[in-house]
Amino acid sequence: MEPEGQMSPPGSELGDAPHPAPCDPEAATDEAQVPAVSASSEALEFLRSVGQEELNLCLFADSLVTESVSGVEVGTYTVSVQPAYYELDGMEEKCFLVHAASQGSIDGVPCGTSIIGHISYKLETLEQHLHEYVKLRGHSLDKKTQTVRQGDEIVINRIITEGEKLHRETTSHPASSLCGFISEAANLLIMRILARRKMKEPLEFLAFDEEANLCVSTYAALGSQTQMIGKQTVDVFGIERTIHSPEVPTTWQCFYLSDGHLATHVQIGSSVTIKLTEMPILSEPDEKDPKPVFEKKPLDWQEDLQLHSEFLDRKEEFISDHETYLRRHPEMKVLLADFMQFLLLRKPDDIVDFAAEYFQPFSSTHEPRDPFVSSHHTSPFHNSSH
């Protein structure tokens, strides 16, 4: 199952923070720093043209099902985009939180993918976490990829667990050399914008393939056609995306409703198709109502209700503060949901160790070690005296 081609080309990279120098293809003069591939001028112009109002129209969730060739439902696929904040060096930056997840089975093999990405208003990726797994009988494959900006570089950390073998690798690229780079999380947002615009001319961006090789990612219009959703026949607009990996190019074809809701998603060569089964409520620009005018009324303090007590005051203050924090950090619910899904999949005996090992790759202060090996090591989270 793949939110956008995962367990084949992934992508998880970065973009907008206290920015280094602006992205300028002519700024790199050292040949060793110049990438072998580059985004097209049309693609860079597209990124500059996207405004806040257009982005706000893409803030919604998609929920689809995955069907086999025979029409049997074998899994689910969800994508959501919502406003969020990203913290860097003690500063909070407004951004978008993109979360995509697919799970199910293909030919009887359980598999799934999860993408969590913070995308700036300039469509640059601030940080992305990609998790993929395939559970073959007697053999499993688990991949975790984190892409994050560190100073003037974009760093990619990968942890691949295949059976009992663990492989770690880290690669980095100068941020100035990745003008027009689109991560998998950013791609999910950009596709909605391109569908709403009914793109005409092809675009060439940069992306990373499954092996973290930098390559060209192309977008091309497939035109309009009709699709049956539930009992309705609707018009949909198609976009084809290809990551031109030096290993094996990978292509997806996606069809969207007029407002950017995903209707169909298929990876060329895959045995499954992701389809929308229920017609969503289409999102359109809101008409601004005239600003209401309120009459000023004298305040009669004698009729004003008294607060019940200082305790209730404090209690309401805490509740409001906690709710505000959760609204500003919706990624917390996303992380906990992914953890619960993986916890129920593995069903470990020691949940405390499992949780510590699951979240350890997200920490920059701990030394790496084999994931999910609590059955082989004494837990550092239990006091031997108890």
From TrEMBL:
Q: What highest taxon heads this organism's lineage?
A: Eukaryota
Instruction: Indicate the principal place this protein occupies in or around the cell.
Output: membrane
Q: Where is the Ciliogenesis-associated TTC17-interacting protein N-terminal domain positioned along the sequence?
A: 42-270
Q: Which GO terms describe its biological process?
A: actin filament polymerization; cilium assembly; determination of heart left/right asymmetry
| Listed SUPFAM superfamilies | Dimerization-anchoring domain of cAMP-dependent PK regulatory subunit
Record keywords, A-Z: Cell membrane, Cilium biogenesis/degradation, Cytoplasm, Cytoskeleton, Membrane, Nucleus
Q: Identify the Pfam families for this entry.
A: CATIP_N (PF21772)
- InterPro entries hit by this protein: CATIP_N, DD_CATIP
The segments labelled Disordered in the record are: 1-32, 366-386
Gene Ontology cellular component terms for the protein in this record: cytoskeleton; nucleus; plasma membrane
Q: Where is the composition biased (Polar residues)?
A: 375-386
Annotated family? Belongs to the CATIP family.
As for what it does, the entry says: Plays a role in primary ciliogenesis by modulating actin polymerization.
Q: What is this protein called?
A: Ciliogenesis-associated TTC17-interacting protein
Species for this entry: Xenopus tropicalis (Western clawed frog)
